[in-house]
Design a protein that fits this description.
- Strands 3-2-1-4-5-6-7-8 form an eight-stranded mixed beta sheet, with helices on both faces.
- The longest helix is centred in the middle third of the chain and has 32 residues.
- The protein is 44% helix and 14% strand.
- The chain is α/β, with parallel strands linked by helices and 459 residues long.
- Helix 9 crosses helix 11.
- The chain folds into two domains: 204 residues, NAD(P)-binding Rossmann-like Domain (Rossmann fold, 3-Layer(aba) Sandwich), CATH 3.40.50; 155 residues, Rossmann fold (3-Layer(aba) Sandwich).
- The structure holds uridine-5'-diphosphate-xylopyranose and adenosine-5'-diphosphate.
- Adenosine-5'-diphosphate (ADP) binds next to helix 5.
- Its EC number is 1.1.1.22.
- Pfam families: UDPG_MGDP_dh, UDPG_MGDP_dh_C, UDPG_MGDP_dh_N.
């Protein structure tokens, strides 16, 4: 089975970059990415490649190479479904905000709508690939919807979870540790293997049954997040014992069984995946009555929330137990560097805590626009939009953010923060001048040498 036409439903953070690379590496396969969101599709089609809706280093080059050749972005979902041999479903699966499983289970309504649309439109056999991260056994529901169309079309379902990390999406796609394909039908699996074999060595393409593939994605994210929570728990212990968390990370990371990656203590992990996937894992475990398993993984989230609150409370405590009316500059709002994504960013929750204490927060992030920052705060519903705009100011110039403030909090590890003129900044700040480094980004001896009071996680 040779794939000639691929359609991807959902032109988001996952679908857009993944399909761009598949098209780049398979010039003979026509790849069409569709989305209901017209503005998003227009941005993917923008002649100015700096206006792509997803900011990823190197993505403009990939899109520039393939777009118009064999990569297309469109809002005509039905046409793209009709034409395709293979359909990737890459729509959002947010945590449910209502009903059973509220706050934990994944909301599968967008997935179900896609399946129903495919069922309604398809006239020829299709391979349907789950790309979105889904609860284990979602393929069963998909299959049931697709198989009951009664129009004689055969559907094969594959699970092909995405492991790309934001900010490194293009290099992760070009050079993946592994590609995982779960399925039941050997020919369908082989068809997708061939798409990836265009650039991924065969021994890095793993095939499993459907349920293992679906579950592996959740488990990979849970393990990664668990490492961050583990080291963050130790950061608190370091602060009271005089140990240094970076030294501990280094010492344990040299053990090849532990490994050095994902041991950087921080103000807490964010991003669209970690929390959502763990909550999902917890929900699934609970739904099978596996209480000990559910409690075990839930602790990863509890510790992460604790780390964010702890960071905010340390600011309040250090600023003489009150931040009321004080100006606190935030450097960074994105959940990590090199991305404009703010989903579940620690900055949102740290700000919320300080705003509860009536602090004034001045935010500078090199990639996140003001509207997004206000949207994130409004979404919490802690206070009115007017109140958020009264207490939070967003500026485009870091020196403007820092001028005259009582304290600086570093929330994202943007490289540029290191090279600021910290001597000049010190002159404009209130004295004593406090720096709360949630990313352990600055050099302690240099910053203290300039006369700052410097606090870093885990020291
Ligand atoms: C993650 C997974 O890495 C990826 O495989 C999956 O497909 C999606 O989820 P992403 O959310 O883009 O990717 O970011 P990641 O680099 O994993 O970082 C997640 C969060 O953990 C960030 O807030 C980051 O700052 C934090 N982190 C990461 C730490 O605090 N310390 C670390 O050592 C590593
Ligand atoms: P992810 O990070 O998983 O890629 P995003 O929210 O960035 O998630 O992107 C998902 C995209 O899927 C959104 O642009 C949304 O408009 C699109 N989408 C959701 N449901 C449908 C649907 N039924 N048909 C087409 N596009 C859809």
């Amino acid at each position: 089975m040779q794939i000639k036409k691929i359609t991807c439903i959902g032109a988001g953070y996952v679908g857009g970059p993944t399909m761009s690379v598949i098209a780049q590496k398979n010039p003979n396969v026509q790849v069409t990415v569709v989305d209901l969101n017209e503005a998003r599709i227009a941005a993917w089609n923008d002649a100015d490649l700096s206006k792509l809706p997803v900011y990823e280093p190197g993505l403009d080059g990939v899109v520039g190479e393939a777009r118009g050749r064999n990569l297309f972005f469109s809002t005509d979902v039905d046409k793209a479904i009709h034409e395709a041999d293979m359909i990737f479903i890459s729509v959002n699966t947010p945590t449910k905000t209502y009903g059973k499983g509220k706050g934990q289970a994944a909301d599968l309504k967008f997935i179900e709508l896609c399946a129903r649309q495919i069922a309604a439109v398809a006239k020829s056999d299709k391979i349907v690939v789950e790309k979105s991260t889904l609860p284990v056994r979602t393929a069963e529901a998909l299959k049931s919807i697709l198989d009951n169309t009664g129009n004689g079309v055969n559907f094969h379902i594959l699970s092909n979870p995405e492991f790309l990390a934001e900010g490194t999406a293009v290099t992760d796609l070009h050079n993946p540790d592994r590609v995982l394909i779960g399925g039941e039908d050997a020919d369908a699996i082989e068809a997708l293997v061939q798409v990836y074999e265009a650039w991924v060595p065969r021994d890095r393409i793993l095939t499993t049954n459907l349920w293992s593939s679906e579950l592996s994605k959740l488990v990979a994210n849970a393990f990664l997040a668990q490492r961050v929570s583990s080291i963050n728990s130790i950061s608190e212990l370091c602060e009271v014992t005089g140990a240094n968390v970076d030294e501990v990370s280094r010492a344990i990371g040299y053990d090849s069984r532990i490994g050095a990656k994902f041991l950087k203590a921080s103000v807490g992990f964010g991003g669209s995946c970690f929390q959502k996937d763990i909550l999902n894992l917890v929900y699934i475990a609970r739904s099978y009555n596996l209480k000990a398993v559910a409690d075990y993984w839930e602790q990863v989230i509890i510790l992460n929330d604790h780390q964010k609150v702890r960071f905010a409370e340390n600011i309040i405590k250090t600023l003489y137990n009150t931040v009321n009316g004080k100006n606190i500059a935030f450097l960074g709002w994105a959940f990590k560097k090199d991305t404009n994504d703010t989903r579940e960013s620690a900055a949102i929750y740290v700000a919320d805590h300080l705003l509860d204490e009536e602090a004034n927060v001045i935010v500078y992030d090199p990639k996140v626009p003001a509207e997004q920052i206000y949207r994130d705060l409004d979404y919490l519903g802690t206070r009115s939009p007017e109140e958020n705009r009264r207490l939070v100011k967003v500026v485009n110039d870091p020196y403007e953010a820092l001028a005259g403030v009582h304290a600086v909090a570093i929330l994202t590890e943007w490289e540029e923060f290191k090279s600021y003129d910290w001597e000049k900044i010190k002159e404009t700040m209130k004295k004593p001048s406090f720096v709360f480094d949630g990313r352990k980004l600055l050099n302690r001896s240099k910053i203290e040498g300039l006369g700052y009071v410097y606090y870093a996680i885990g020291e």
